[in-house]
Each structure stands twice: as structure tokens, then as C-alpha cells.
């Protein structure tokens, strides 16, 4: 028999919150306020995952352990939501570079010098075959390195969580259960630690961008960059909580003391939503508001024309020119 308690209520509140963002973005896409081939698509992916995650959280909050598959789906989708949000923030910074820097090129993601069909196919197959290990070939591209490490960390978190699926929580002293707990703790803590490290790298790149603009003579910090700095605070809070939740037993999803017959304890629900869900939702909303701070930004420029000028500049610097 279902029970609509505090956990289901919290899940419903943020399901409505994410649905509101989802519907606005669908409207914005349909009216061409924002484009599919833009930074917002990664954010839309995050919102879609979070809608699914909160829907699973709502069902689990009502049914409790009558359906453990819903609980596992909630955990996996929650991890994917955080992964996409961190990735999305980097994409927003890269987009700002491409619109606002004089070169219209981001030093986090340098433009490809070889744009031939053969080069594009080579790049495609390297990423297809090596996946996150593609950074071994593109180690000079910071964005590729960041993406690769985020993917590997995400895989470690999911693997750690899935490995506990077969544990017998009624026998915490069983050798197999202890082994599963240890492996899962190492995997999840490692993955969350990488996420945390990437968050510190993120603030470093944002501050480096602001410093670069000041050095270039721009006195007023762009409002989008200010918003990205603000976004970092809930993101780093989420990152610290992720590490603590995977390494501290009292905060773990798998600690029996965090459950009652109908699901999570009120204490655990409050901690989970304040440090996990609220921080992500606020970050998501702040990223979305960069639409209003970037409406007057220059266009990225004609890439072909920029490449032509770049090539002409190289020729003019050649000996004897």
C-alpha cells in the first residue's frame, strides 16, 4: 500500500520545478528563441534526466521498497544529472569564449586546424573506438580531457552503485557484503572526487577568463561570467556532498539506519534534497538565466572567414613576405 510522506512531497516539488524549466525550454526551442545546436541542448538533456529522476523519486517515495528497481533508477539518473550539469557549465564557458573573445575561439576547445573530411572521420573513429580515452590523442585540448575524466568518473560512480545491488543488507557482517561495500565505496568516492576536482578546475578557468578580460582592458566583468561564478558555489556544495555521501556511512544510501518502512528517514530526505537536489536545481536555473545576460553578445563570427584571416596572418609572418 502506497504512502505519500515527506519524501514523496519533496520529490513532487522538484519534479514540478524541473517540469517548469523543461516546458519553458520546449517553448523556447519551438519558437526558435534558443537553437538546438547550442549550449542549451546539454542543459536540456540535464533537465530531461532530472525530470525522470524526480519522477522515480516520487514513485519510490510513495511505494517505498515495494519496487526496488525504481529506487535504483532514481540513483542512476541522479548521478547522470550531476554529471551532465558539470559538463554543461563548461560548455557555457566555452560558448562565452566563442562569442566574446576577439578570436571567437575558446582556449578550452581550440578550433580544428584541419577541417577536411578525412580529418573529421579520423576524429570520429578515435572517439568512437576509444571513448573517454580519446584524450590520449587530443591531450592538447583541455575540453576533451575534462570530458574524458568526467565520463570515467561517472562510470566509476554508476559501477560502484550497481555493484551493491546484489548485497544482502540484512547481513552487514557477511564477507561478501563487506567486500561489496568496500569496492563500491572506493569506486564511488573516486568518481565523486574527480567531479570535485573538475569543479575546482572550473572556477579556475572562469577566474582566468575574467583576469584575461581585465588584462585586455575590459573594465566591467561580463554578467554571464558573474553568473557562472555564482553557479560554482551550489555546484561545489553538490560536489563536496557527493564525496561525503560516498565515503561517510551515515550519509550513504545503503545505510539501513537511513530507512524506515516507507522509505528514507525525514533527516536523510532533508540532507539529500538540500545538498543534492536543491543545489542542482539552482545551478540549472542560473545557467538558464544566462540567456538574458548574453542576448547582446556578438555572434561567433563566420568560421570560414576567421580561418582565412588566420591563414593569411600566418603567410604574412613567413620569411621573405
Automatic annotation (TrEMBL):
Q: Does the keyword Hydrolase apply?
A: no
Q: Which residues cross the membrane?
A: 12-30, 42-65, 71-94, 121-139, 194-212, 224-248, 268-292
Bias type Basic and acidic residues, positions: 297-312
Annotated region (Disordered) at 297-321
Name of the molecule in the record = Uncharacterized protein
Sorted keywords for this record are:
Membrane, Transmembrane, Transmembrane helix
Amino acid at each position: 500500500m502506497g504512502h505519500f510522506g515527506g519524501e514523496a512531497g519533496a520529490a513532487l516539488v522538484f519534479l514540478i520545478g524541473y517540469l517548469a524549466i523543461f516546458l519553458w525550454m520546449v517553448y523556447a526551442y519551438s519558437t526558435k528563441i534558443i537553437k538546438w545546436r547550442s549550449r542549451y541542448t546539454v542543459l536540456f538533456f540535464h533537465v530531461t534526466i532530472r525530470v525522470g529522476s524526480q519522477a522515480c523519486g516520487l514513485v519510490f517515495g510513495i511505494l517505498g521498497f515495494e519496487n526496488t528497481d525504481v529506487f535504483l533508477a532514481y540513483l542512476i539518473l541522479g548521478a547522470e544529472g550531476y554529471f551532465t550539469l558539470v559538463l554543461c557549465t563548461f560548455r557555457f564557458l566555452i560558448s562565452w569564449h566563442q562569442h566574446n573573445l576577439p578570436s571567437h575561439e575558446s582556449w578550452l576547445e581550440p578550433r580544428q586546424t584541419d577541417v577536411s573530411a578525412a580529418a573529421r572521420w579520423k576524429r570520429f573513429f578515435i572517439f568512437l573506438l576509444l571513448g573517454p580515452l580519446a584524450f590520449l590523442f587530443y591531450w592538447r585540448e583541455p575540453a576533451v580531457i575534462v570530458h574524458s575524466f568526467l565520463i570515467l568518473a561517472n562510470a566509476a560512480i554508476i559501477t560502484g552503485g550497481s555493484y551493491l545491488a546484489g548485497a544482502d543488507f540484512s547481513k552487514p557482517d557477511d564477507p561478501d557484503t563487506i567486500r561489496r561495500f568496500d569496492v563500491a565505496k572506493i569506486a564511488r568516492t573516486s568518481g565523486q572526487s574527480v567531479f570535485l576536482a573538475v569543479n575546482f578546475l572550473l572556477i579556475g578557468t572562469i577566474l582566468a577568463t575574467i583576469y584575461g578580460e581585465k588584462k585586455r582592458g575590459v573594465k566591467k566583468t561580463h554578467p554571464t561570467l558573474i553568473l557562472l561564478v555564482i553557479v560554482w558555489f551550489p555546484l561545489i556544495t553538490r560536489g563536496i556532498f557527493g564525496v561525503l555521501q560516498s565515503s561517510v556511512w551515515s550519509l550513504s544510501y545503503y545505510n539501513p539506519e537511513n530507512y524506515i518502512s516507507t522509505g528514507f528517514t525525514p533527516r536523510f530526505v532533508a540532507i539529500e534534497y538540500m545538498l543534492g537536489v536543491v543545489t542542482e536545481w539552482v545551478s540549472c536555473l542560473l545557467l538558464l538565466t544566462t540567456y538574458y545576460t548574453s542576448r547582446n553578445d556578438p555572434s561567433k563570427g563566420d568560421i570560414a572567414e576567421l580561418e582565412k584571416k588566420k591563414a593569411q596572418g600566418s603567410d604574412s609572418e613567413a620569411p621573405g613576405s
